[in-house]
């Protein structure tokens, strides 16, 4: 029996609602696989916890999480708590402390859904954005502000280290080498950001010589346009923290939006737990109504299975989601239907049993 321990942080708003459905999927994984066990432990670290205790997690919160193999995360955020608190006191410490330097976001148009890019097919929209998750433009390394001088000024540091750039670029090349197109697209802007980006490009060149993978280097502005005009070119895209953030949200919009898209915050060496979550937030506007789409959260379990080296289970989950979207009438309101979170979750689970 292979046993994994899963820390579960449902969070706020629709977080617990969609996490609940994804836990059914985790259970289904055990049943279809046989010798597999997920031991889950829930942590109530959310905005209510903050309002009671003045912090998002206990002082030894990270130590508690560290004992687990993976983390399943819902979403945090509540109108009563400033947004930066939940981000800076919970999500970012987890990402940084556990060296989750890869932010992995599949951009894949599922069967049964239409893209707002109406001339693009399912084959055209199927790639992965690999975003650097620990440094670059979001380093928070401090900056300067000079208010009150004749020229008001703000300076923010972007930190690109060789160590940080090399490891994300290597990860992306390894992923590209495993996929069929054998192509890596790299976001840059070395013509304008003329210290950090030439450095990044140089490292791409060095690392790339070790792989039998075609490398395409595009400036970020052109690349954003190509996301719309020729997404079929892409297979794996690697980008810095800021560029990857923008590209992955843009990518999500081309395949149906927030209720559908997952992300993995990965520590590839498995020295620390990796964390899986939907890209959406706590959606206070629809929380408590039981109508949130659980697909993004359920798909995050698929990424978790890939990470735990059970890609056949990851694929089974995506297939089950596609079966429901393509061959049943079940749709949550964001997809234009009237079904509940639970209807959608149950339908996907029963497809998993059928296909598994
Ligand atoms: P955050 O700051 O945490 O990212 P946000 O307010 O920017 O939160 P979301 O909470 O993701 O963004 O919500 C944005 C919009 O998308 C809301 O109108 C919300 O109802 C909708 N939405 C988000 N997730 C889902 C979902 N799973 N199902 C249906 N609608 C969703
Ligand atoms: Mg948001």
Please render the helix and strand layout as text.
Blueprint: E1 2-11, H1 15-33, E2 36-42, H2 47-53, H3 61-66, E3 70-75, H4 83-97, E4 102-108, E5 126-132, E6 143-146, E7 153-156, H5 162-178, E8 183-188, H6 196-208, E9 214-219, H7 220-229, E10 236-239, H8 241-254, E11 262-266, E12 274-278, H9 295-307, H10 311-327, H11 341-355
Parallel strand pairs: 1-2, 1-3, 3-12, 5-10, 8-9, 8-10
Antiparallel strand pairs: 4-5, 4-11, 6-7, 11-12
Helix pairs in contact: 1-9, 1-11, 5-6, 7-8, 9-10, 10-11
The structure holds adenosine-5'-triphosphate and magnesium ion (MG).
Residues 14, 18, 75, 77, 83, 258-259, 280-283, 285-286, 292-293, 296, 334 line the site of adenosine-5'-triphosphate (ATP).
What does this 3D model show about the protein?
- The protein has two domains: 1-100 and 273-356, Isopropylmalate Dehydrogenase; 114-254, 3-Layer(aba) Sandwich (Isopropylmalate Dehydrogenase).
- The two termini are 18 Å apart.
- The chain is α/β, with parallel strands linked by helices.
- It has helices at residues 15-33, 47-53, 61-66, 83-97, 162-178, 196-208, 220-229, 241-254, 295-307, 311-327, 341-355, and strands spanning 2-11, 36-42, 70-75, 102-108, 126-132, 143-146, 153-156, 183-188, 214-219, 236-239, 262-266, 274-278.
- The protein is built from eleven helices and twelve strands.
- Helix 5 crosses helix 6 (196-208) and helix 7 (220-229) runs parallel beside helix 8 (241-254).
- The mean pLDDT is 95.
- Bound molecules: adenosine-5'-triphosphate (ATP) and magnesium ion.
- The site of adenosine-5'-triphosphate has 17 residues, from loops.
- Its cofactor is Mg(2+); Mn(2+).
- This is D-malate dehydrogenase (decarboxylating).
